[in-house]
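User: Once you have settled down, look closely at the record that follows, taking as long as you need, and be ready to discuss the fold:
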Amino acid sequence: FFDRAQHNLYNHMDNSRSSYNNRPSATSRFIHFVFKRLYGDIPLSEIRRVFLLSLTFFFMIGGYWLLRSLKDPVITALCGVSVIPRAKMLSVVVVLGVVSGYNYLLSLPHIPKHHLFYFFGTIYFGIFCTIAILLQHPTMGLPNEVS
């Protein structure tokens, strides 16, 4: 989806302004001006693609910072402070394994890159939903104040 040009929704903003009816509205000109000032000379057919990729990046970074700030307090509440160094070392090993596996799968010619992206996104979604459900469990999760 993101590796090909999107349908040009702004056909009225091309260079063929032969009549008054083909003239873009003030809103379209303003949006084009803002995009040109912020992102450079992007073809109009690519604006939707740039917007969707920017939105994806925004949510990925936002989720990362949210989870990063919650990681140490949650581990401390569940297992204690002494486990944090081992958890960080395990995190490095797991990330190294996942990135190596992802790079290997990228090198295979019969797997489209966007399918791989959706596959890994679905796996991460499932893992984080499972973790969220387990954190709410009354005996294993954060509500347990006995441990």
Confidence is low (pLDDT under 50) at residues 8-19. The CA atoms of residues 11 and 44 lie 9 Å apart.
